[in-house]
Amino acid sequence: MHKVKIVLIGAGTWGEAHAEIYSSHHLSEFIAVCDVSEEKAKALAQKYNVRYFADYEKMLDDVECDAVAIVTPDFAHAKPIVAAAKRNKHILCEKPLATSYQDLNLILNVLKGKNIQLMVDFHNRWNPPICKIKDDIDAGKIGRIVSAYIRLNDIIYVPTEMLSWAEESSILWFLGSHSVDVLNWIIGAKVKRVYSVYYEGILKSKGMDVPDLYQTILEYSNGAVATMENSWILPNTNPYVNDYKLNITGERGMFNMDFSHNTLLERFLENESSHPDIICKPKIHGKPTGFAYESIRDFIERIYHKEKVRIPLEESIAVTKIIFAIMESAKKKMPVTVEL
Q1: Which of 14, 59, 96, 107 is most buried, by CB atoms within 10 Å?
Q2: How far is CA 153 from CA 90, 137, 180, 232, 259, in A?
Q3: What parts of the chain have a pLDDT lower than 70?
Q4: In DSSP terms, which residues pair with 250 in a beta bridge?
C-alpha cells in the first residue's frame, strides 16, 4: 500500500505539530495545508514543501488524499468534518467532536452509510501513567472502582493570550473533554447523571464572557462516583501551563497521579522556576516524542494497516453528550440525567 496521504486543516500551533508528524512518519505523506489565514498556511507549506489553501473545500477538490486532519478551534470542527466525509476521507479531529447539538447532528448524519473512520484525538489514552492505571484496573488489581477525582486546569494565560477564540469555547470543551474521556476510559462504564456548578467573574472582568471554572460530579452505571474540576484562571506563576491530578480509588487499592507538579525534573533559573515538559510533547534529538504525538502516529499506522482506530466514534460522541449535560446542569443548578 502507498503511504497514507494526509492534508491538514488548521495551521496554528497544534497544526504545526501535526505537520511535523505527517512529514516525518515513514507511513504518511503530507500533501497540503489549509488555514483561514493564507499567510499561516503559506508559511507552514513552505516549511514542508507542500501545497497550501485558504479554502478547505477547494483543497479537498484539488488534492488527492486518503485522510484529513482537522486542527481548528473547538467550535469549528463540524463543517470540515462534513466536507471530508462527503469525499469519503478518513478523519482525525482534535477534541471535542462538536460543541453544539446542531453540529453533532450534522456530523452523525453525514457519516451514515460511510465506510470511513473518524477518530477524535483524545491523546491522554497514550499518556504513560494513565495507561498504566488502566492496565492495572483491567487486571483487577484494585477491584471495583469506587470513586475518582480528576483536576485538569490551565493558567490564565491560556484564555487571555494563547487562544484568540476562548469566548467561543469553554474550559469544559477545551480541557473538560479530556477529563471526561479519561474518566470514561478508566472507569469503563456509562455516565448516568451529572451535577455541576460554575463560577464566573475573573475572566468577565477582563472583558471575556465565559465562566472561569466548573466543578462537576458524575455518577456511573457501575456505581462509581467521579469529581471533575476544570478551570483556566490559575496564576501564570504556576510552574506548568496545566495543573493535572488524578485519583482512582477501588475496593482494594488506589492510584494517585500528579502529572504537572512531579519532581522528575525541576528547573531553577535566575528569574523563574519551572517543571519542563518531558512527557506530553517533548523533543528528543529534535524528534517529537511525547504521548500527545503518539495518538497522531497511531492514527496513521492504523489507517495504513486498515485497522480500526483506537478510539471508537461512539465514545467521542458520549463525551460531547456528557458535556452538554454538565453545561445544562450548571445552568439549571440541578442534576441532569445523561442520555447516551
Answers
A1: 96
A2: 32, 25, 13, 6, 12
A3: none
A4: 145
Q: What is the mean pLDDT of the chain?
A: 96
Pull the grid cell for residue 14: 497544534
Do 163 and 83 share a structural domain? Answer: no
C-alpha cell at 189: 462504564
What's the CA gap between 82 and 103, in Å, rounded? 10
C-alpha to C-alpha distance for 114 and 79, rounded to whole angstroms: 16
Asked if residue 89 lies in contact with residue 97, where contact means CB atoms within 8 angstroms, the answer is no
Contact 92, 294 (CB under 8 A): no
Give CA separation, 146 vs 219, 225, 250, in Å: 11, 7, 5
Region for residue 335 given its phi and psi (left: phi exceeds 0; alpha: psi -120 to 50; beta: otherwise): beta
pLDDT, position 273 = 83
Element (H, E) at 243: strand 242-250
Q: What is the pLDDT of residue 198?
A: 98
Handedness of CA 234, 259, 23, 117 (dihedral sign): negative
Task: Judge whether 298 lies within some domain.
Answer: no
Q: Tell me, what CATH number does 256's domain have? A: 3.30.360.10
CATH value at residue 62? 3.40.50.720
Beta strand residue intervals within 263-330, DSSP E? 267-268, 273-274, 283-284, 287-288
Supply the pTM of this predicted model: 0.96
How far is Cα 329 from Cα 286, in angstroms, rounded to an integer?
45
CA 185 to CA 170: how far, in whole Å? 22
Residue where one domain finishes, among candidates 57, 90, 116: 116
Could you tell me the residue range of the domain that residue 75 belongs to? 4-116
